[in-house]
Design a protein that fits this description.
Oligomer: single chain
Distance between the termini: 46 Å
Largest sheet: none
Number of strands: 0
């Protein structure tokens, strides 16, 4: 058995990775200027979470791959409107 490898400079041999890289570039990297490493880490983390839980994927019939479950708020806590203010995914193009 021989291990298969992708030749350097042959992106067409791995379409899934190239598709992901294009989406990351188009939806995040081309739109942001990171001033610090911490800012980059936070924004990329938010994008990754949204990509895996919120963003619709065409190969799944435009559903998110792992939607987050919603838990009801405990009685007497914040109202739903107040709870939504801290949403790290707010303002993303597909949200």
């Amino acid at each position: 058995m021989k291990t298969l490898s992708i030749e350097p400079g042959s992106p067409w041999e791995n379409g899934y990775v190239e598709s992901f890289n294009g989406k990351l570039r188009d939806e995040l990297l081309d739109r942001e200027v990171f001033d610090t490493f911490l800012e980059a880490k936070v924004l990329i983390g938010r994008w990754r979470k949204a990509y895996n839980t919120v963003r619709p994927h065409s190969w799944l019939g435009y559903r998110p791959p792992a939607p987050e479950s919603r838990r009801p708020l405990p009685l007497g806590s914040a109202t739903p409107h107040q709870a939504d203010r801290g949403d790290p995914l707010a303002g993303l193009p597909w949200g």
